[in-house]
Amino acid sequence: MADLRGREAERRALLEGTPEARGRALRERVRAGDLAEAMLELAAYCGDAGAIAGGGLDSWSVGRGVDPRERPLGEWAEGLSLWGRPVMVRAGCAAARAWVAHGGAPPPLVTPDGAEAVVRVVESAEAWLAYPSEEHRATWALVSAANTPDVHPMEWSREADIVRQIGLAATWPGEAPVRAAMERALVAWALGEGAWHPGRKA
Predict the structure, then answer these.
(1) 166 contacts 73 by C-beta, under 8 angstroms
(2) pLDDT tens digit string along 162-193?
(3) Helix or strand holding residue 128 (H, E)
(4) Would you state the pLDDT for residue 201?
(5) Cα→Cα distances 39→86, 95, 109, 115, Å
(6) pTM (2 d.p.)
């Protein structure tokens, strides 16, 4: 950040190591224009303690009355639509990668090359996220059709499709690791604290 207040807040956050100190640093980033309020809210929605301490959950919670962290996975995933389709696609990619990282589903749920097929689709979706051009969108659609026509139809043309794919990924190995993977990926991207995937540009 460019101003002294922001740098001091970041220094204190590092020294104190508390969610409250980190929340103050994040709030300073918002004040300085270095972090969009919507991204702070997304990180808080995903359970980041610093973002919650920085007030990121306050505006989201008004009128809803339910802590998003207590929502079932499907409802929580649907709630990501508030931040738009690219955020939901990021979540879907993270869910699919978690599914693959845990060995994918055993036969007969998925064909022997099912995990590799899902990775190919996810990589094409990540390319679209990095460079959202029509060319990348068309490539993503072609890769999806070629690799997952029956087993995992990951076209993600609608928000409901993404939520369904997240639910499928969570059937194996379970909701907890899939949700944790989505939360980590979205928090890192929203707060700009690390590459969400090697080719990330946005």
Answers:
(1) yes
(2) 887 788 778 777 888 989 999 999 999 999 86
(3) helix 114-130
(4) 34
(5) 13, 20, 36, 31
(6) 0.79
Burial pattern 121-133, b for ≥16 Cβ within 10 A else e, equals bbebbbbbbbeee
Residue with tokens 């207590």, as numbered in its chain: 70
Cα 117 to Cα 3, 66, 77, distances in angstroms: 47, 37, 23
- What type of residue sits at position 44? A
Which own/partner contact pairs does 143-150 have at CB distance under 8 Å and 24+ positions apart? 147/117, 147/118, 147/120, 147/121, 148/117, 148/118, 148/121
3-state secondary structure of 200: coil
pLDDT digits (tens, 9 = 90+) for 92-126: 889 888 888 887 654 444 545 667 777 888 888 89
How is residue 56 written in tokens?
């990121």
What is the DSSP code string of 55-76?
TTTHHHHTTT-S-GGGS-HHHH
Q: Give the CA angle between residues 155, 193, 40 to the nearest 5°.
A: 75
Q: Which residue has the tokens 């640093």?
A: 25
Question: In angstroms, rounded to a whole number, what is the distance separating the alpha carbons of residues 131 and 108?
Answer: 36
Give the tokens for residue 156: 């993600």
pLDDT at 57: 77
